[in-house]
Amino acid sequence: MAQSYKSLKEDFVSNLSGGQIGEINHVTAVAPASVFLWSVLQSRQEAFAHYGPLAVLTDFLLNVCAILFATTIYSSAPTLLNLLLLSPAACISFLPSTRKRQKAPSKPTSIREIPAKTLDNSSLDSLPQRPFITSYRGSMMVITCLAILAVDFRIFPRRFAKVETWGTSLMDMGVGSFVFSAGVVSARPILKAQLHGKVSGLNQSLRAAARHSLPLLILGLVRLYSVKGLDYAEHVTEYGVHWNFFFTLALIPPIVALFQPFSALIPNVAVISILIIAVYQSFLEFTGTQTYILTAPRVDLLSKNREGVFSTCGYLAIFLAGQAIGFAVLRRDSSETKNIFNAWMQRKRLVKRLVAWSAGWSLLFFFSASYKFGLGIQVSRRLANAPYVLWVAAFNCAQITLFCLVETFVFPGVYKALDKTIEMKECERATSKVLAAYNKNGLVVFLLANVLTGCVNMSFDTLRATRGVAMAILLGYSALLTAFALVMHGKGLSIKL
User: Bridge-partner residues for 296, per DSSP?
Assistant: First the structure.
């Protein structure tokens, strides 16, 4: 890559100040709005019951292209795009359902008249599928994969790209959301072990963490040598000279394992997350570490990679915040399977729990960032400081709440199912195959997205691309990623890194 062009590429993503949180919320609201329209089409018209070419195309347009449009051609009018998605969804929801219905049993007059099998908790898994979590994680992966290439084109607004030091942006949220969502699903194997009465010791947990981290470490090294060997444009202040996001992902599991002994003293991992970020923020403010990270000359290995090394503390707190939500929503309530008539109350409690989590993290973020009523600390993804961590946690909890509300009102069969077979069918019916595919092999798809992004940038001058050419490339790129994810999902392949 010519030095002058490399410099232009680096300047294109450097010294940016981001945008407003309100605008980020409007843009990302397209994801639950798209899922709402998809859900209404499925529940009222069975549009995706037969997953033929038309269904695949519609699924792709709604759950991938809508997000792409929100960050490019509709970037200045995200509210209009949301209305274009929500309006037909509202109209279709009033149409009669085309699904064949079985005659519903009459409501029993007392608990004694409820069939015995409906009182058998063993007929349902204690760790049920949660389609709204699949939709949330799938949408997060879609927007992350789209943004890493779109940011190299002028059609992607600079206010959405990662900020230099202080501020908020869509891509800053994407990085944190990736870690948060990993924390959410990390709760499942822990809950499963608890249900079976298995308690892993520290050594066993460290070995498991090492097995999980090793592939990520290898990917980080491959990316490092690829970037340096190909003289690829890089933004040094993002993570450092040698550090990259894969190293951060690789470092988190063993650190989480080391915190295992503290779980006996502090069972709630959200409290541990808050304590970590409080200590880290104090360390930044009162020891000169913040000044060191932002201004120190790069003379040794630590100073050359100081952003990546120190920001791991913040990402660790984000991961644990996500894990806390996983513990709160993935496990079925002990009374949830007694009978169909209390299912709504159980789901209502789940929604209230999510709203409470969202409100709690939002209040903490407001307190940390508000100049008038709080500490007045600016958000910094580069530091992964307290306001950044709290913003990521609040945003993701709110997103999960929206997806949960869509599922609650459009697919009540998911939480009203009385046995495992029916529940699995209802969950499959309530889940977009595109989003399920992105969710199932998220890290592999993300790796492919990085490779394709590199190929496009090495072979094409993205800075001079017209809007039409940029959209054509981005649509082709998103179609290729989606096709890969769907093929992997259709063949039942799942590569865990």
Answer: none
User: How far apart are the C-alpha atoms of 244 and 283, rounded to whole Å?
Assistant: 23
Please determine, for residue 337, whether its predicted confidence score (pLDDT) is greater than 50.
Answer: no
Q: What is the pLDDT of residues 132-150, one digit of tens each?
A: 999 999 999 999 999 999 9
Among all chains, which residue has been given the structure tokens 């070419």?
53
Please tell me the distance from the alpha carbon of residue 465 to that of residue 457, in angstroms, as a whole number: 11
Residue carrying structure tokens 């097995």: 211
The pair of structure tokens assigned to 156 is 């992607």
**Residues 318 and 181: beta-carbon distance below 8 Å:** no
CA distance 384 to 280: 10
CA angle 460, 465, 470 (to 5 degrees): 90
pLDDT-derived band at 4 (thresholds 50, 70, 90) equals confident
Closest CA to 133 of 403, 394, 319, 395: 403
Count of residues for the chain? 497
Q: What are phi and psi of 382, to 5 degrees?
A: -60, -40
Top pLDDT among 292 and 494 is at 292
Of 223 and 124, which is predicted with more confidence? 223
- Whole-number Cα distances in Å, 111 to 90, 338, 341, 342: 37, 10, 10, 11
Instruction: Give mean pLDDT, residues 349-369.
Output: 96
Strand partners, 19: 168
Q: Are 485 and 441 in contact (CB under 8 A)?
A: yes
Q: Are 403 and 364 in contact (CB under 8 A)?
A: no
199 closest CA partner among 255, 264, 272, 129: 264
Q: Which pLDDT tens digit goes with each residue over 209-219?
A: 998 899 999 99
Among residues 180, 188, 79, which one has the least CA distance to residue 130? 188
Q: Is 80 exposed, middle or buried (CB count within 10 Å of its CB: 0-12, 13-18, 19+)? A: exposed
Cβ–Cβ under 8 Å, residues 159 and 16: yes
- The C-alpha torsion from 456 through 461 and 466 to 471, rounded to 10°, is 10
